[in-house]
Design brief:
The structure is a homodimer. Chain A is of the alpha/beta class and about 300 residues long. Chain A has two domains: about 1-120 and about 250-295, 3-Layer(aba) Sandwich (Rossmann fold); about 135-235, Dihydrodipicolinate Reductase, domain 2. Chain A contains eight helices and 14 strands. The first copy, chain A, has helices at about 10-20, 70-75, 95-105, 120-130, 150-155, 190-200, 250-265, 285-295; strands at about 1-5, 25-30, 45-50, 60, 80-85, 110, 135-140, 145, 160-170, 175-185, 205-210, 220-235, 235-250, 270. In chain A, the strands form three sheets. In chain A, strands 3-2-1-4-5-6-14 form a seven-stranded parallel beta sheet, with helices on both faces. A four-stranded mixed beta sheet of chain A has the order 8-9-10-11. In chain A, α3 (about 95-105) links the parallel β5 and β6 (about 110). In chain A, α1 packs across α7 and α2 (about 70-75) packs parallel to α3 (about 95-105). The mean pLDDT of chain A is about 95. Chains A and B meet through α1, α3, α4, β13 and α7 of A and α1, α3, α4, β13 and α7 of B. β13 of chain A pairs antiparallel with β13 of chain B, so a sheet runs across the interface.
Chain lengths: ~300, ~300
Amino acid sequence: MIRTVIVGFGNIGACVLEALLESPDFNLIGIVETNKELIKVKTDVSIQDDISKFNDVHVAILCTPSRIIPELAESILSKGINTVDAYDIHSKIFDLKDKLDKISKNNKAAAIIAAGWDPGTDSVVRSLMEIMTLQGITYTDFGPGMSMGHSVAAKAIKGVKDALSITVPLGTGIHRRIVYVELADNADFTKVSQSIKKDDYFANDETHVIQVPNVNVLMDKGHAVNISRKGVSGKTHNQIINFSMSINNPALTAQILVSCARAVVKQAPGCYTMIEIPLIDMIHGDKESIIRRLV
Amino acid sequence: MIRTVIVGFGNIGACVLEALLESPDFNLIGIVETNKELIKVKTDVSIQDDISKFNDVHVAILCTPSRIIPELAESILSKGINTVDAYDIHSKIFDLKDKLDKISKNNKAAAIIAAGWDPGTDSVVRSLMEIMTLQGITYTDFGPGMSMGHSVAAKAIKGVKDALSITVPLGTGIHRRIVYVELADNADFTKVSQSIKKDDYFANDETHVIQVPNVNVLMDKGHAVNISRKGVSGKTHNQIINFSMSINNPALTAQILVSCARAVVKQAPGCYTMIEIPLIDMIHGDKESIIRRLV
């Protein structure tokens, strides 16, 4: 049994709790959450404000916002506890790996970072497509679905009480943003709309801003992606490969985190992304039955 | 540079030659083929009847029929040379792994077996789908495209001069077989049709036999697959995941074999299937640039 602690008990943390309870090989020891207001799910599991309150932890599943992951992972790995996270700032993943790799090795622990769906399982799919076709172009088209980052950016604009930004795929990696806004008292819609469209998050995409009386009734945690590649195997062109999914976003992220928590305890000390780990390590069961079922 | 030999120079071997010439990190040392009649492609590469005629070989890519792979892989691994193959008899893969694992370890070599598209990259996709959804059903629907095994089985029926069996996907893992036959002189079509439908290869599927004057003009090496799963992440049902491709069959198999040849030289002694190997090992380039591009 893998003795596991959930660190951060928001949206993703609550789904990780569900996924752990469904997995026969995990023993959920406790939850770490300092902000009691975030806890919206009832549970009998012990909730503490520091991971040191729990003994003999094999894996910490980090479910905090990405921006605090680097420091948090470092502090937990320093205690010799393995970590898994869904760090999603693509441009900084390699630097994080580089930093955590040294800390992991010094403390005989392992970390799997960027273990959500993008980065994460989508990265595995993009890698597989390059293994099948040496040349070609891969497009990742997101949506339709809610973008957390863009919604937060819109909410930060002056005059916005609440906001929801939907990502709409236009194909070949081009996206439209539809931003539903609930205005603060006395705010001017034209000004708000202009401010959103000028914001760095939206300036490069086709962006539409729509005023609504209530953003909350539009909320849906579903998302989707289509990854497509047309490429060349050897000298043979026009090899067509497609991957698509339509999923509940936090539930999928949580399940992938749990699968990677299963894998991290089997790795040599160091820090890894999902494409550096044999997939079989992420699946429950003995090697023989997995190979007989899936290969 | 990975010093590589192609063993078996039929359909797949010729495509592996093309894929190796397109790959910047391989040095093609030679080809092993005992049956000169099989060689239909012109090449300057040295063709010998025994792998021992080549020096300092890092990898042998085995492109022979599956039934002779077990013995061939054993003999080459025994010389301390790494092997890669696309062995495709699903029910015997684990047993082959078990056997070659011991031989590989005794000779400090590594083998990657079942490294085509099914088994192979499809196995990776099925594994990834289970990593994303713990419960659910995965369907693999093949085609439309030519089945080598079924075509050979139909050709072996008395009265058949030439045959082509097309696999047609009916969804949820159910397939139709359409068998195009060119009759031998004086053969009776009704008898031939009945014999094909009674054959073990066809008895369990909806099978149609069609007489044609010339099978050869129908030949096309394209194939397709759709892998779909509807499953559960944690406690969240109805997660929908799809993978599909439309590809030139031998060209894709060859490219995957070459990608795995790149990986096999990086493995500890032993025998592996593709789901036991980090995908990053199969991709050309340094780790940092791969992670920055694909994760």
